[in-house]
Design goal:
- The complex is a heterodimer of chains A (130) and B (91).
- Chain A is α+β, with helices and mostly antiparallel strands.
- Chain A is built from two helices and five strands, in the order E-E-E-E-E-H-H.
- In chain A, a hairpin with a 4-residue loop joins strand 2 and strand 3.
- Chain A starts with 5 loop residues before the first strand and ends in a 5-residue tail after the last helix.
- Chain B folds into two domains: 30 residues, no CATH class; 55 residues, no CATH class.
- Chain B is built from three helices and two strands.
- A two-stranded antiparallel sheet of chain B has the order 1-2.
- The longest helix of chain B has 16 residues.
- Classes of the chains: A alpha+beta (130), B alpha+beta (91).
- At the A-B interface, strand 5 of A face helix 3 of B.
Chain lengths: 130, 91
Amino acid sequence: MIEVGRVCIKLAGRDAKLYCVITEVLDKTYVMIDGQTRRRKCNMAHLEPLSKTLNIKAKASHEDVKVAFKEMNVEIVDSVKKEKKSEKPKQKRKVPAVKKEKKEKAKPVKKEKVAKKVKAKITKKAPKKE
Amino acid sequence: MVSGKHKSSRFKKIYVRTPGAKTVVHYRQRKVEQPKCAKCKCTLKGIPSLTSVQFKNLAKSKKKNERPYGGNLCSKCSRATIKEYARGLEQ
């Protein structure tokens, strides 16, 4: 029953209740399918084989499968891929005008306070002359 | 007197005995039932149990499963019905 060209109906998943055909037998449990469903690997437990078969070669392309299904009066509508939208123009960052160099102000030189304080202490401590 | 909102059938009356030995009526909201399979009555997986208002605001993909009969039949029953459909085609 499991052979290349066997028409099946898929039971599980989002492709359920759709026609497919076996394009390749991978091992005891898995096969490759194509048709109204997506072209993909599938477990045989998720397929209900029908009595009909299609004349296709092993690893047949999607277009060959399409033609074969047309003879069976089953239409295959391919999903149209969305065209990529043209990229939006990127906003360029506004480059700030060259900053005016700040004039470096010459820092006022600190006068020697310490010397002043010392002088003041000396004057305070100095005994008064009578 | 009962306030207007408590007259709705979504509230369940519960009689509570207070410490002062009085019986008082409390109104508790009923739980929303989990959606169930139309054939075997088992709970549907992947569908939240929400009130109709909350359910309305959900995304379409969250209200039901992606497969045919999703949101109505469980996976086992949907497979069985599709099998019947496939076998019916051949007769």
